[in-house]
Amino acid sequence: MQKKTDDELAKFISDGVSKDGKVMMPAYEGKLSDEKTRDLVKYVRELGKK
Ligand code: HEM
Questions:
Q1: Is 40 domain-assigned?
Q2: What is the pLDDT of residues 23-42, one digit of tens each?
Q3: DSSP of 1-50, one letter per residue?
């Protein structure tokens, strides 16, 4: 996850699909605004630092 860009993580949260097309988690597109998704990317990065 550390190696992924913010854009890749935001996309993953929106559609829940990995690069090879596997559904990994529920898609949050339509449930979260772009801004909220960006905030979550920042939050998930914070968790990774600990
Ligand atoms: C807003 C809430 C959520 C956020 C921000 C979030 C975020 C993430 C992130 C950043 C990843 C890692 C992606 C990667 O490794 O590239 C991930 C993976 C995953 N998430 Fe979520 N997630 C959320 C909700 C959920 C929910 C509700 C579920 C299940 C009901 C779920 C199930 C999973 C699974 C199964 C994976 C894949 C783990 C693996 O790599 O094997 N997520 N999530």
A1: yes
A2: 999 999 999 999 999 999 99
A3: -TTS-HHHHHHHHHH-B-TTS-B-S---BTTB-HHHHHHHHHHHHHHHH-
The single-letter code of the amino acid at 38 is R
Cα of 35 from ligand 1 centre, angstroms: 18
Residues with CB under 6 A from ligand 1: 1, 4, 9, 12-13, 24-26, 28, 40, 44
Is there a domain that residue 1 lies in? no
- pTM score, whole prediction: 0.92
Q: Residue 12 CA: which ligand 1 atom is closest?
A: 13
- Cα 15 to averaged position of ligand 1 atoms, centre (Å): 11
| Predicted pLDDT of residue 47 | 95
Q: Which domain holds residue 36?
A: 6-49
Looking at residue 18, its pLDDT comes to 92
Total count of domains within the chain: 1
Q: Ligand 1 centroid vs 25 CA: distance in angstroms?
A: 5
